[in-house]
């Protein structure tokens, strides 16, 4: 097959490209230029978006012995990922930009261009596994290394995208990938992993949003209210600086009566009110989802598990589907679940699909 290997400049994508070539495919390396001004995104060798990363990807392609190109997708990335990130926070929601990038950029814009150019598939360094099911559909499963598993951020991929995807690292753990990179002579073998949002240069999401949103923010400040007493216990300069479940950085002027920490329970972007309260009030046992994306056949009901954060644990759940609405009853309650996040649904290790969290219901509250 003719394969485009998406090369970020990190160790995972370099080894994935090398494995694809070793498997006999005709591989071309492609680095995605996602920043209109690379200096405005994260600096340093962190695995995404910088000039250094582009150079690292090019050197890796030279060692592997494959052609290499840079595709400029900065305008599409800004519109579909960065603008979406700002809009979601301005609306009081908490988005996952990596998941959106996979949906809109790596497995949509890149795949569309690759297919138009006559390629058959896109290979990436994501940790996930693909298998052909008994019904002939392509199934996506968790990686062997559950600690590195990235199926959560791939839960937006549909069947057509999965049929044209390759994840060569799904059967390997990260230490083995680094050892393999070193054995192959790839200079990125010891390059640090990327953890922060690639377009927030210093990791300060609130500061970045404050600068970028400007007058687009629905408010520039408001009250922080205690859910237990109804008392105003602080103030803030913008709801986009908060997310459900947050404990640090609240700067509350009035301590809780029991002396325990308080957490963000609710965000109301129009009035600017941020509600805080005790940790036990974070627990939810029902999640309402919208905008579902299914990896295969649309289910009516799934008795399985859901993952509600990129690095969160699985929760046993009963999922029912009616059109574009997904109802998730959590048998294991979850804490700090924010609208805008993704709920990824699993049947064992297989990814069934995902939905965007629209609302939650606290434990003990009726329908």
UniProtKB/TrEMBL annotation:
<feature type="site" description="Interaction with tRNA">
    <location>
        <position position="126"/>
    </location>
</feature>
<keyword id="KW-1015">Disulfide bond</keyword>
<dbReference type="GO" id="GO:0032259">
    <property type="term" value="P:methylation"/>
</dbReference>
<dbReference type="Pfam" id="PF20258">
    <property type="entry name" value="tRNA_Me_trans_C"/>
</dbReference>
<feature type="disulfide bond" description="Alternate">
    <location>
        <begin position="101"/>
        <end position="198"/>
    </location>
</feature>
<dbReference type="InterPro" id="IPR004506">
    <property type="entry name" value="MnmA-like"/>
</dbReference>
<dbReference type="GO" id="GO:0002143">
    <property type="term" value="P:tRNA wobble position uridine thiolation"/>
</dbReference>
<dbReference type="GO" id="GO:0103016">
    <property type="term" value="F:tRNA-uridine 2-sulfurtransferase activity"/>
</dbReference>
<dbReference type="Pfam" id="PF03054">
    <property type="entry name" value="tRNA_Me_trans"/>
</dbReference>
<keyword id="KW-0489">Methyltransferase</keyword>
<keyword id="KW-0547">Nucleotide-binding</keyword>
<dbReference type="InterPro" id="IPR046884">
    <property type="entry name" value="MnmA-like_central"/>
</dbReference>
<dbReference type="InterPro" id="IPR023382">
    <property type="entry name" value="MnmA-like_central_sf"/>
</dbReference>
<dbReference type="GO" id="GO:0005524">
    <property type="term" value="F:ATP binding"/>
</dbReference>
<comment type="similarity">
    <text>Belongs to the MnmA/TRMU family.</text>
</comment>
<keyword id="KW-0819">tRNA processing</keyword>
<feature type="domain" description="tRNA-specific 2-thiouridylase MnmA-like C-terminal">
    <location>
        <begin position="285"/>
        <end position="357"/>
    </location>
</feature>
<feature type="domain" description="tRNA-specific 2-thiouridylase MnmA-like central">
    <location>
        <begin position="213"/>
        <end position="277"/>
    </location>
</feature>
<dbReference type="GO" id="GO:0008168">
    <property type="term" value="F:methyltransferase activity"/>
</dbReference>
<dbReference type="InterPro" id="IPR046885">
    <property type="entry name" value="MnmA-like_C"/>
</dbReference>
<dbReference type="InterPro" id="IPR014729">
    <property type="entry name" value="Rossmann-like_a/b/a_fold"/>
</dbReference>
<dbReference type="GO" id="GO:0005737">
    <property type="term" value="C:cytoplasm"/>
</dbReference>
<comment type="function">
    <text>Catalyzes the 2-thiolation of uridine at the wobble position (U34) of tRNA, leading to the formation of s(2)U34.</text>
</comment>
<feature type="binding site">
    <location>
        <begin position="6"/>
        <end position="13"/>
    </location>
    <ligand>
        <name>ATP</name>
    </ligand>
</feature>
<keyword id="KW-0820">tRNA-binding</keyword>
<keyword id="KW-0694">RNA-binding</keyword>
<feature type="region of interest" description="Interaction with tRNA">
    <location>
        <begin position="148"/>
        <end position="150"/>
    </location>
</feature>
<keyword id="KW-0808">Transferase</keyword>
<keyword id="KW-0963">Cytoplasm</keyword>
<feature type="active site" description="Cysteine persulfide intermediate">
    <location>
        <position position="198"/>
    </location>
</feature>
<dbReference type="GO" id="GO:0000049">
    <property type="term" value="F:tRNA binding"/>
</dbReference>
<keyword id="KW-0067">ATP-binding</keyword>
<feature type="site" description="Interaction with tRNA">
    <location>
        <position position="341"/>
    </location>
</feature>
<feature type="binding site">
    <location>
        <position position="125"/>
    </location>
    <ligand>
        <name>ATP</name>
    </ligand>
</feature>
<feature type="active site" description="Nucleophile">
    <location>
        <position position="101"/>
    </location>
</feature>
<feature type="binding site">
    <location>
        <position position="32"/>
    </location>
    <ligand>
        <name>ATP</name>
    </ligand>
</feature>
<dbReference type="Pfam" id="PF20259">
    <property type="entry name" value="tRNA_Me_trans_M"/>
</dbReference>
<protein>
    <recommendedName>
        <fullName>tRNA-specific 2-thiouridylase MnmA</fullName>
        <ecNumber>2.8.1.13</ecNumber>
    </recommendedName>
</protein>
